[in-house]
Write a structure and sequence with these properties.
By secondary structure, this protein is of the alpha+beta class. The protein is built from two helices and four strands, in the order βαββαβ.
Amino acid sequence: MAHAFLEDIPATDDQYRRVRARLGDETPDGMIAHVVLKREHGLRIVGVWETEAHFSKFHADHVAPAVAAMLAEDGLAAPPDGPVTESFDVLEVWLGTGD
């Protein structure tokens, strides 16, 4: 069954874009969808992956180092607990064409 997560992060658009630029343009193995929503106090990220293992591996190998590098550039330390992440089993993903 596919895996989804929801994560609220206290980041700016610029911080997100800098992290995203470090991840490259190639779609990660196992990623189905990635949506970033602007909120009053940061961003909400919604991800859908083929499996939780795909997400965990990409996060550990790529996202965490990219976030650490961005925070270091800004002279910030990572919050000790990190963002709160909710996980879900996915019933369906319906993607449009975006036209």
